[in-house]
Write a structure and sequence with these properties.
Length: 155
């Protein structure tokens, strides 16, 4: 995977979340992982197609997901993941990944995104690569979100 392909994802995170009422995100670190993402409680996976192939996976604790859903719903408390909270989480992943697609287009890379897959389960495993992939650890409002990214350009 070309490490330069991570910047449009980070930039989308930094651009979109403050517009939705979240504090400014901070990038903590970037590191390599091997093959699988193991859920911290809630994962949202979105695929890339066309000139890029792969996935971006937003991985967070249930507490962080409730915070995000509540903020997306203008402060409505989220005690459990009902349909409205799940919809808010999917919408957040759509907005982030759609902005990343726009950022890729500015680089001359045309991409489409798939419908987000939402899994609410600790220790759930999703294979996103046959080898290594990058994970970007982000912080928002004192909460951690890991963005796992495995994408390659189509030949």
């Amino acid at each position: 995977m070309d490490a330069k392909l991570v910047n449009p994802i980070i930039d989308a995170f930094m651009e979109v979340l403050p517009q939705m009422g979240f504090p400014m995100p901070r990038r903590k670190r970037i590191y390599l992982q091997d093959r699988n993402v193991i859920s911290s409680g809630v994962i949202l996976a979105v695929g890339f197609t066309r000139q890029l192939r792969g996935k971006v996976v937003y991985n967070m604790t249930a507490d962080t997901a409730r915070y995000i859903a509540s903020t997306m719903m203008l402060g409505v408390p989220v005690e459990r993941f009902n349909d409205m909270a799940k919809s808010a989480l999917r919408e957040m992943s759509n907005m982030l990944t759609a902005r990343a697609a726009t950022n890729f287009a500015k680089l001359g890379i045309e991409v489409d995104i798939t419908t987000p897959e939402l899994v609410i389960e600790e220790d759930h495993t999703i294979k996103i690569s046959d080898a290594h992939f990058l994970t970007v650890e982000m912080e928002i409002g004192g909460r951690r979100i890991d963005i796992a990214l495995s994408v390659d350009r189509e030949a």
